Amino acid sequence: MQSTHPIEALKHQLDTLCETASKGFIRLSTPCQVESLMGWLNVQSVYPRLYWRARDAGAIEYAALGVVKAFDSLGGLQADLAALADIGGEQPDYFGGMAFDPVTPGWQHFPGCHFLLPRIELRRHQTGATLSLNLRFDDRCPEAEIAQARACLAALEEEQPLPCLLPHVYQREDRPSQKEWAASVAQVTNPDHLGHTPKVVLSRETCLTTRETPNPWALLARWQVGATDCFHFGIQLTPHEAFIGCPPERLYKREGRHLMTEALAGTTHRVRDAQQDQALADELLADKKNSLENQCVYQQLLTQLEPHSSQVNMGEAHIVKLRSVQHIRRLIHAELHSDVTDQQLLSVLPPTPAVGGVPRESALAFIRQHERHRRGWYAGVFGSISHANSDLSVAIRCAHVGPEAIRLYAGAGIVAGSQPDEEWRELDTKIADIMSLLGMG
Predict the structure, then answer these.
(1) Catalytic residue list contains 199
(2) Where do the annotations place Mg(2+) binding (predicted)?
């Protein structure tokens, strides 16, 4: 931010608020100017620090700091949303995510589920930027709430340019190794296994160790430039680690009762020559193995949505072209029953067959038994939830950035006809964008 005026304006609004009776959720807002939301986030001393931008053109860009309230369970979050809706007035957005498999041990400092109402929100929309201060008065002492809000405002720092991405020397280790990967693919494609589990999404952790890792916000800012048709997210729950990503896949978007989701599965690489690139896309659409992989996803999504919906419609298969890869995608629209909640949706939809497998339980059993690395929030969920609308991504094309290592994650759907070497190359293609930013491309 270019001046302290927005902060002073919020302090004045807070002073005025003390004299009036307040209840429920209140958001104080003022216009502001900002060049880089991540440049603003990076200099703040308040945690958690969070960034979110949905995939749609013209989507609001969010940078958030601190926490008014947080939930490590979907039940707690849903109860809070319902309580605030009963009070009425403006309704807040909660930001956060969920692990791929909350049943298994995950990453340290990353709970199986974590959604938070931030204290400070910096939002950039098409008409400008807004700095907001969030407060809650329905379940806490008003004086203490205002004192905490004042302390957070007082701690805000001026925006600074992001540091440059300097070259680093990395030591690479893949988990599993290519030999171990081939053995797992052979197990999944064994006819006896295919008979009961036609698809398992196997994943790989590529660990890059170095003396000092790059700044995660500088890395994400560079990454998002080449990922325009993707979601963009970053979260730091503690000062020493971050989870960032530019996923292309939507878990679902809910606007009132209308839900949109997608089957995004089936992959090939991209080339510079436009004719050859289109030929690869045509081959992908016609390929039996990749079509089967996509079919596994959409059939399960339809099965999961039908009990919760009055109507479900699926579109035609088409190609989505990203920077390094292209995918088969089918869009699905559903009209939800009036009593369906995000808690219900998040208890049935993730992990999708695009990141887990089919049937879900037997695919997860294989992953739990054979994968030695921890997926954590990779292939989990990240996004925003509110009473009226929710938008959530599948947390793929992501990186876990610690003080001495960056962990990159990629997965491949293994079905009948999958070849270990081809699938291994697909994993490399999926991490190619961030590897090139790290000087490893």
Answers:
(1) yes
(2) 293, 426
